[in-house]
Amino acid sequence: MATVDPAVTAASLHRTDLLIGSALVPAQSEERIEVISPFTEEVIGSIPRVAEAEADEAMRQARRAFDDGPWPRMAPAERGRALLRLADALAERKDESALLYTLETGVPIGTSPALGLVTDIILRAYAEMAIAGGFTERRQWLGSDLTVRQEPVGVALGISPWNAPVPGISFMLGPALAAGCPIVIKPAAEAPLSPRVLAEAVVAADLPPGVVSILPGDRDLGAYLVEHPEVDKIAFTGSTAVGASIMASAARRMVRVTLELGGKGPAIVCDDADLDALAGTLVRAGMGNSGQVCSAQTRILVPRSRHDEFVERIVAEAAALKVGDPMDPETDLGPLTMERQRTRVEDYLEIGRREGAKILLGGGRPAGLDRGWFIEPTIFGDVDPAMRIAQEEIFGPVLCVLTYTDDDDAVKIANDSAYGLVGSVFTTDPERADRIASRMRVGQVHVNGYGTCPGQPFGGFKRSGIGRKGGPEGLAAYQETKVVQRHR
């Protein structure tokens, strides 16, 4: 593996303090949570195990900051300028953040800087929304003068995923701070190192006391925070099963929720599509970050008339991917982030075989990589829409190729899913693309491409979640609407 800068190792891999109430304080417990490299399978870092008393203190400070502190009462433009200071502080350490992200998750070093760019875009977008204002609107109604105000919802809790730690946090942190909400964030225990850089950026940005706390930890800590009486709003990104549990807990107390959950993205390839142009795009859309992406396009729907020529191209593209050391700039796919995740993917590979699907490529661990939690790029053919591998989120570098007869059949198969997060359609006919996109039951549709648009609303239909993150819609999720009516 490539050499890690010793200064970065000493500064960032082992921590003994926590960000509580916008300040770094010594951890109370000597217990540690170890961070394991998915490439070497060795311990590379550790973080304090957060005690319940520390979680309580973070929540108390957030409540004081909301009830009595300056943050919710600042002019929105002032909060926006503070967000810009935070973005600047984080940008100064973008290389360190990208390196830590690679070390803790296994995402290739050639990819990780792009996620830092996503974070920067999100924070600056919400800063600009706050600076632009628009939180108060004057209206008239039936002879009365109305003031419609968008006010902060209260104390927010953000629970972010391990597959994109800092970008995932930024979708919560940016709108919460822009709206005026103090926020307590729980990053995943599997990927706590890059969020630590964010914690230090918060201190450098000189945010008021109580406004931001970052408490990395395991599921027990997450469950404790979800039930905490000080929480007014929960934002969660992760599995549908955990999201449903959070929603049930929040319902008992009428706590507001934004849930961005699982996906099983359908990509519809029309019979007029340019197969040479789209094969590489679809491989990246389904296997980027080793398939550990909720928006991954993992169900590839192709017309029966062009099945063979499509399969030939997509198999060739996937076979050319370089799998290996995530610190090598030439690597396309690194390991899966956790051993349990590799076990899950291997279980699905066996399920696919038993169901009768045909392995066109891969199907196991790559030769020559005896260490690290790797899975080969895998493509299943002869996949029936009812098979588990076509219905359930695998979260690995596994694509399923399904066939259809006409556009109506393609849309029916695409919508035959419990999920509805992101889909795509490939055709040379713009009107055909619009017709198909309008019928797909997903929160976002890409036409003739795939990528992220972090400044715009993102979320899903059905079991892919509740609400939207990103864009003005993401800001609204941290606000309550108040109407003041002056009668004449």
Automatic annotation (TrEMBL):
Swiss-Prot/TrEMBL keywords: Oxidoreductase
InterPro entries: Ald_DH/histidinol_DH, Ald_DH_C, Ald_DH_N, Aldehyde_DH_dom
Residue ranges annotated for the Aldehyde dehydrogenase domain, each copy included: 26-484
Keyword Protein transport included in the entry's annotation: no
The keyword Plastid is assigned to this record: no
SUPFAM superfamilies in the cross-refs: ALDH-like
Domain of life the protein comes from: Bacteria
Family annotation (Gene3D superfamilies): Aldehyde Dehydrogenase, Chain A, domain 1 (3.40.605.10), Aldehyde Dehydrogenase, Chain A, domain 2 (3.40.309.10)
Entry similarity comment: Belongs to the aldehyde dehydrogenase family.
PANTHER family registered for this protein in UniProt: ALDEHYDE DEHYDROGENASE, ALDEHYDE DEHYDROGENASE-RELATED
Listed name of the protein: Aldehyde dehydrogenase
